[in-house]
Amino acid sequence: MAQQQNLSHKRPVPVLPPEELEQQKTYLAQCADLLTQRFGEEHTLLALVHSYGCQQNTSDGERLMGILAEMGFGFTEEPSEADLILYNTCAVRENAEVRVYGNVGELSHLKARRPELLIGLCGCMVQQQHVADKIKHSYPQVDFLFGTHTLYKFPQILWETLSKQKRIFDVEESDGVIAEGLPVRRTPGVKASIPIMYGCNNFCTYCVVPLVRGRERSRMPEDILSEVRQAVADEFQEITLLGQNVNSYGNDLDIGWHFPDLLRAVNEIPGRFWVRFLSSHPKDCTRELIDTIAACDKVCNHIYLPVQSGSNRILKLMNRNYTVEWYQELIAYAREKIPGVMFTTDLIVGFPGETEEDFRQTLELVKHVRFASLFTFIYSKREGTRAAAMEDPVPKEEKSRWFRELLDVQRKIGAEYYQAYVGKTFTVLADGKSDQGLSGRTEFNAVIDFPGDESLIGKFLRVEVVGARNHDLRGELKEVL
Ligand code: SAM
Ligand code: SF4
Question: CA 232 to CA 225: how far, in whole Å?
């Protein structure tokens, strides 16, 4: 059993020494004083923190906001109101980077009007040296920049910017450390995301993540569990455990704890809440994990299992280390063991060298598995990855045609999927407002809108499905649980 194992075992992966964390707290306090000097005693400090890209980035953004809140900042989403603007960037696809350049470019007017405005960039995109250099030379409005490995040093970076009155650019090359004890300001709502590990060891040939986030580092189970306990005590009803590949959680810890152990331990935490997790790499998704999901009542019956392609030839070129047949067997096993389990996936269209025949195989897989929904991407060339050096002869227009065909096929499957739920009643966590009144999600992660009072947000409800659209459901409230 998970909880009988020794959690205090020394970990081999680098953890930020407590002295360093204390040092950062000193910088944090000094930043508060320097900010008062810069903006005045009476001024209410406001920060805008925008995280682009994945949930891991959003989670990092919550830690950055925790640090800013301790310096005395409140928060705004309006750039013209902000005293400090921090863009937490994404590098996974080129269009995310293009958006950041555009948004930072637009800030030059604000900076010209208010030179005291502080503008910073951090995250995956700026961890790439060529990007950091371009920002330094072409975007003089940016005051400071730091990469993914130095997030915990944000107080020091801001202190240096303020006290030395010069631009600070800190892109450290390292595999990163685990920094425990940073303050967190969670996005208000019913859901809390909790990182269980950082980095990635998989080196899928198209992907920049291992290059910008370093190797896998798992947090110690007790640190994760105490953060989950706190989130439950703070009345978050849904906990999402985050990692680039949660299925390799613990491999670096050498304490005999793996992802199923962690799931079981989270499931045993008292309270009414649901547990989700992402992402799962199919190559490391074991039968034990599926049996664990089936056995844990708080763990939702939804698995996000990115497959990327339905062609074994392309999967090999992508370095994914599984076959389409392996993937389908995994799905079949999970469907047998977990009642009502839903699958969602990621697919890349137009990987270098992909042919019409490879693409047809992806369509076949989508039709065969019948995913509830897809996250589909046209391949984007990323500097420094192995795929960037591969021949890529298929024209953009052809890739776009494939992409649209894939969406059409999925639209039909999604509509049929959702239609089949009409007349059934499910447990739903109400998580916000909609034009119907309330919006929520089923355990298998379908969005459902239904009439109801705002006071029910954060409650588990029984809702009958009375209608279906392509991507969501309409319902009628039956019972408050
Ligand atoms: N670690 C996760 C996994 O392997 O499932 C996903 C991380 S990545 C941030 C999210 C998705 O972006 C991937 O599953 C992939 O479909 C897509 N992606 C990554 N690199 C890409 C690229 N160069 N071009 C297009 N899509 C890409
Ligand atoms: Fe990128 Fe592959 Fe790692 Fe996911 S598993 S982050 S796609 S390298």
Answer: 10
Tell me the DSSP string of 354-404: --HHHHHHHHHHHHHH--SEEEEEE----TTSSGGGS---S-HHHHHHHHH
Peptide bond into 279 cis (omega under 30): yes
Residue 124 has, within 13 A of its CA and on its CB side, a CA count of 29
What strands, in cross-sheet order, belong to the sheet with 74-75? 74-75, 46-51, 84-89, 118-123, 144-146, 168-170
Ligand 1 centroid to residue 207 C-alpha, Å = 6
Q: Which residues of the chain have pLDDT under 70?
A: 1-13
| 200 and 263 assigned to the same domain | yes
* pLDDT at residue number 12: 60
Q: Does residue 392 line the site of ligand 1, with CB under 6 A? A: no
Tokens representing 356 are: 């019409």
Note the pLDDT of residue 207: 97
Structural domain boundaries enclosing 380: 304-420
Read off the amino acid at residue 55.
Answer: Q
Ligand with an atom nearest the CA of residue 242: 1
Could you tell me which of 57, 182, 198 has the C-alpha nearest to residue 124? 57
- The answer to whether the CB of 394 falls within 8 A of the CB of 212 is no
Tokens 């590098």 found at: 91
Task: Identify the burial level of 456 via C-beta atoms within 10 angstroms of its C-beta, where 0-12 means exposed, 13-18 middle and 19 or more buried.
Answer: middle
| Ligand 1 proximity of 348 Cβ (cutoff 6 Å) | yes
Same-domain status, 33 and 145: yes
Structure tokens at 190: 């019913």
Which residues make Cβ contacts (< 8 Å) with residue 171, sequence separation at least 6? 126, 127, 129, 132, 145, 146, 147, 150
Question: Which residue CA neighbors atom 1 of ligand 2 most closely?
Answer: 207
CATH classification of the domain holding 277 = 3.30.750.210
Give pTM, 2 decimals.
Answer: 0.95
Coil, strand or helix: which one is 63?
Answer: helix
Alpha-carbon distance of 129 to 133, in angstroms, equals: 6
Angle CA(198)–CA(313)–CA(407) in degrees, nearest 5?
75
The label of the residue with tokens 């080129």 reads 94
Indicate the residue among 282, 300, 318 that finishes a domain: 300
Same domain, 133 and 57: yes
Last residue of a domain, one of 300, 328, 358: 300
